[in-house]
Amino acid sequence: MMSVSKYCESIKRLRPSRGWARVLVVSCAVGLSPSATGMTLGEGLQVHGFASQGFVYTTDNNFFGETDDEGSLDFSELALNASYAPDPNILAVGQVISRHAGATDDGDMALDFGFIDARFAASERGYWGGRFGRIKVPLGLFNDIRGVPLARPGILLPQSIYFERTRNLAASADGMVLYGEHAWPWTTALLELGVAEPMIDELNTEPALLGADRPGGLQDRISFQGRLMLKSHDERIRFAVSSVQANIAYQPGPADPFAAGEIRFTPWIFSFQYDAARWGIIGEYARRRFSFSDFGPALPNMEVVGRSRYVQVDYRPALRWQLFARYDVLNTDEDDEDGEDYAARTGLPAHTRYAKDFTLGARWDPYPYLFLRAEWHRVNGTAWLPIIENPDPLARTKNWQLFSLLVSFHF
């Protein structure tokens, strides 16, 4: 296993748009620009961090605060992380973060991740090892580095796959991941397999999964995760397939119409990325299976399969500039894509079951340690709106726009 300093230097040689580096190097990834070095506080110890402030305005609905026709500064992130290598084959990595995102995140300091990475064996062709502790979930291209503003492909990740309203549930888990990488003459393969308990965020997860804040509570259960990635040796081309089986239990409260039930969420995500010198393309497709069982007559046993897909094209007209266009589509139920059957059955708006988002964005890096982003979304549908900020489905507006600015400092 290479030293932390060499590991960080290899990451810094990548373009900022390649912030998909594995979570093992998140402590370096927050300083991805060529001259951002963080702080070295001793042999094998490095510290990095970032602070970002966002502004969000929406023509209708709320996202990260009271944004409807007003605009809000209730979107900020502050983090400090460190990596320490007491041995060439052992690396300890951790990050604490304060994240404020309107009503969906209150800004309290929390442990984002903290784990021991141990390399068990290595050869000229590859290596294998494990991560143990609070790990980042290896799902899709961006889930395990979504907490680093510089690594994201926009201010907001594609919401059809990387939901903000269930971010805490998806981002981290307590458990272990075993991984291995092997190089052939024509490709390199990385396999990650994990078992962990998801981080239940009652504030957002319960409304997102059960439609409202219920009398009872959710409890985590042992869950499983995996990702297989094939990439070219220069890492310009990547294919990946990833999945999670998240198991969550519900314990009823007083006067609760629900019995003790189980929720199982199983997304399969297929990912592709190509990065050339001046332009790049990213695409992901997901099928998301939800099953609800044993909740009683108020919520009969059911299974719903949703679909998500997006494509994003990046263009770098100059060294410090990046532009992108993205089209992102979410359907909650693949058998009722327009939500008409749902509306006829429940009397609720059909647009709560889908969202089609066209986005334009830009990024400017005036200094190696500072970048600014701007992006505009035109959205048809409300399926990925945070329920806690938009509790009344009848009050949600079908066609709406979102404009956001972000300034971020990192070291």
Notable traits:
411 residues, mainly beta, 16-stranded antiparallel beta barrel, 18 strands
Can you tell me about this structure?
The chain has 411 residues and is mainly β. 8% of the residues lie in helices and 54% in strands. The chain has helices at residues 4-12, 26-29, 167-171, 202-210, 340-346, and strands at residues 39-42, 45-58, 72-87, 90-101, 106-122, 126-136, 172-183, 188-198, 217-220, 223-231, 237-251, 261-275, 279-293, 302-318, 321-331, 354-367, 370-381, 399-410. It has a 16-stranded antiparallel barrel. The longest helix has 9 residues, at 4-12. It starts with a helix and ends with a strand.
- Principal-axis shape equals globular
Order of helices and strands: HHEEEEEEHEEHEEEEEEEHEEE
**C-alpha end-to-end distance:** 24 Å
Q: Counting H and I runs of at least 4 residues, what is the number of helices?
A: 5
Name the structural class. Answer: mainly beta
Largest sheet: 16 strands, antiparallel, barrel
Low-confidence stretches: 1-37
Helix share bin: under 10%
**What's the total number of strands?**
18
Q: What is the structure about, briefly put?
A:
With 411 residues, the chain is mostly beta strands.
Compile the SSE list and pairings:
Layout: H1 4-12, H2 26-29, E1 39-42, E2 45-58, E3 72-87, E4 90-101, E5 106-122, E6 126-136, H3 167-171, E7 172-183, E8 188-198, H4 202-210, E9 217-220, E10 223-231, E11 237-251, E12 261-275, E13 279-293, E14 302-318, E15 321-331, H5 340-346, E16 354-367, E17 370-381, E18 399-410
Antiparallel strand pairs: 1-2, 2-3, 2-18, 3-4, 4-5, 5-6, 6-7, 7-8, 8-10, 9-11, 10-11, 11-12, 12-13, 13-14, 14-15, 15-16, 16-17, 17-18
